[in-house]
């Protein structure tokens, strides 16, 4: 994408190609105009087109250009917030409602993959949230207790069980979540887009929306090549937002996150690492993630931006960290490096706005957008179809509010990751 190997890295190499999505040319009319071609926008477009609505989706660059085509591919259940905390922070109605929806989100993702025959390396074998030290283990034990009380299929593993499943590491334990799994994210979003096209949606790439205005009862989304007029507007631009109300654009702090991938591992080594093919991440504040892909590569990631001057710091750290967890990989490095923007909200919860009559946006998944983006896209479609009134939506409706010192906070995360990766194993 954009001939930049650090934008989508391995995923661009191994995803099936996207069908042509030519730029918008001239004026057009639809029932719904969707802005943004990631999981959220594409899922909304798919479900609306399946319900017979005329949908036009405008994407600034290409489907999957944003976080949806760059992420780790961990299909998580739930958010960062502890299950018991949700009713306290979101209230007695939305808290339990969101927990149910997101607890079931991986199942929804894997069902969509099957229903549409999406070729995206989907592996519904669970995830392992790995505990660093006693504090990490205590946090995961509490998480296991809270999900367990709700009947979720989660198991707390001890250090020996964790080491056995991983094939390495010295973690104090891990939370095995059998609802979750992994997929190839760019292949997934392209597959959803292909299904949306088949259902009748129009998707235009290279069509950045430069202006959104009202004309009578309709919204008009203008791009350099044309404009779409529609009674309904869906904004699904998340952390890559370059259109829409100012507050919406500035309500998230950007956390850079990178991935690096080894070449396909020799069979003898591959068999020793994550033989159950779970996806993993750890409890450190500057976390690490790792997962296998279908060809037996290991994809290793953490917080950081792969531009100069810090690229070498993150690459060298990632190599040391990976070799520390999996000594059998010594001598093996990374072939691919790529990174993207994670949008963080102050309370780590997503935001739902109704920024005008018949307009809706959901964003702010805090690094957990595969399941949420998919099910929120479906909820957006149900809202537009009149099947889900505002009070029945999964999140409370809020006003978009800019985060104070947003840029400085983002730079703080970026610098903190550099410091952490420079000093991690030297202290
Ligand atoms: C490196 C990384 C690792 C992550 N790991 C995971 C993970 O393992 N599991 C997980 O669940 N989540 C993960 N996430 C988070 C997840 O990828 C996101 O939450 C999710 O992709 C957001 O989807 P979205 O559709 O809302 O937004 P995006 O996928 O970002 O899509 C927004 C789209 O809007 C387009 N756009 C912006 N402005 C305009 C405009 N003016 N006109 C037209 N189009 C516009 C952009 O080009 C973009 O394609 C990760 C994110 C990153 C960056």
Number of continuous helical runs: 12
Share in helix: 25-40%
Strand order of the largest sheet: 6-7-5-15-16-17-14-18
Rg from C-alpha positions? Answer: 21 Å
Identify every distinct bound molecule in the structure, by name, code or SMILES.
Answer: flavin-adenine dinucleotide
The overall average pLDDT, rounded, is 95
Unreliably modeled segments: none
Anisotropy-based shape:
globular
Quick one: biggest sheet? 8 strands, mixed
How much of the sequence is in beta strands?
Answer: 15-25%
For the termini, the CA-CA separation is: 39 Å
Which structural class matches the secondary elements? Answer: alpha/beta
Number of strands: 20
Characterization of this structure:
The chain has 427 residues and is an alpha/beta fold. 34% of the residues lie in helices and 23% in strands. It contains twelve helices and 20 strands. It has helices spanning 5-14, 39-50, 85-103, 105-115, 133-149, 159-166, 185-198, 246-249, 267-270, 311-325, 370-384, 406-423, and strands spanning 26-29, 32-35, 55-58, 74-75, 127-131, 154-158, 173-177, 181-182, 202-204, 211-215, 218-223, 226-230, 232-235, 253-261, 279-282, 288-292, 298-303, 336-344, 351-356, 359-363. The strands form four sheets. An eight-stranded mixed sheet has the order 6-7-5-15-16-17-14-18. It has a six-stranded mixed sheet with strand order 9-3-2-13-20-19, covered by helices on one side. A hairpin with a 2-residue loop joins strand 11 (218-223) and strand 12. Helix 2 (39-50) packs parallel to helix 7 (185-198), helix 4 crosses helix 11 (370-384) and helix 10 crosses helix 12 (406-423). The radius of gyration is 21 Å and the shape is globular. Flavin-adenine dinucleotide (FAD) binds at residues 35-41, 58-61, 65-68, 70-74, 76, 208-209, 236-243, 257, 339-342, 363, 365, 367-370, 373. The site of flavin-adenine dinucleotide (FAD) has 43 residues, from helix 2, strand 18 and helix 11.
């Amino acid at each position: 994408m954009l001939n930049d190997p650090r934008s989508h890295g391995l995923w661009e190499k191994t995803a099936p190609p996207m069908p042509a999505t030519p730029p918008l040319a001239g004026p057009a009319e639809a029932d719904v105009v969707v802005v943004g071609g990631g999981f959220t926008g594409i899922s909304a477009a798919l479900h609306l087109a399946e319900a017979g609505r005329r949908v036009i989706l405008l994407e600034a660059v290409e489907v999957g250009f944003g976080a949806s085509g760059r992420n780790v591919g961990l299909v998580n259940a739930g958010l960062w917030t502890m299950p018991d905390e949700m009713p306290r922070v979101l209230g007695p109605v939305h808290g339990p409602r969101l927990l149910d929806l997101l607890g079931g989100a991986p199942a929804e993702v894997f069902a969509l993959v099957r229903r549409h025959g999406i070729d995206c390396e989907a592996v519904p074998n669970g995830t392992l949230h790995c505990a660093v030290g006693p504090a990490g283990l205590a946090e995961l034990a509490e998480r296991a207790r809270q999900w367990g009380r709700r009947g979720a299929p989660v198991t707390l593993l001890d250090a020996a069980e964790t080491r056995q499943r991983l094939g390495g590491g010295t973690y104090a334990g891990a939370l095995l979540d059998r609802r979750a799994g992994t997929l190839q994210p760019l292949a997934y979003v392209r597959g959803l887009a292909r299904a949306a096209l088949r259902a009748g949606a129009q998707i235009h790439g290279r069509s950045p929306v430069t202006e959104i205005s009202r004309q009578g009862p309709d919204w008009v989304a203008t791009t350099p090549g044309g404009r779409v007029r529609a009674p309904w507007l869906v904004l699904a631009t998340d952390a890559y937002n370059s259109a829409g109300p100012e507050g919406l654009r500035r309500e998230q702090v950007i956390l850079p996150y990178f991935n690096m991938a080894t070449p396909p591992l020799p069979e003898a080594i591959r068999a020793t690492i994550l033989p159950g093919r779970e996806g993993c991440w750890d409890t450190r504040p500057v976390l690490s993630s790792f997962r296998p892909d279908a060809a037996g590569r290991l994809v290793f990631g953490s917080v950081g931006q792969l531009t100069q001057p810090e690229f070498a710091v993150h690459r060298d750290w990632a190599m040391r960290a990976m070799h520390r967890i999996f000594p059998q990989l010594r001598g093996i490095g990374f072939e691919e490096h790529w990174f993207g923007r994670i949008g963080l909200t102050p309370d780590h919860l997503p935001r739902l706005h109704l920024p005008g009559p018949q307009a809706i946006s959901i964003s702010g998944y805090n690094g957990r957008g595969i399941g949420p983006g998919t099910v929120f896209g479906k909820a957006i479609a149900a809202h537009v179809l009149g099947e889900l009134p505002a009070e029945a939506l999964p999140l409370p409706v809020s006003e978009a509010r800019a985060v104070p010192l947003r840029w400085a906070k983002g730079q703080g995360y970026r610098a903190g990751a550099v410091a952490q990766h420079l000093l991690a194993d030297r202290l």
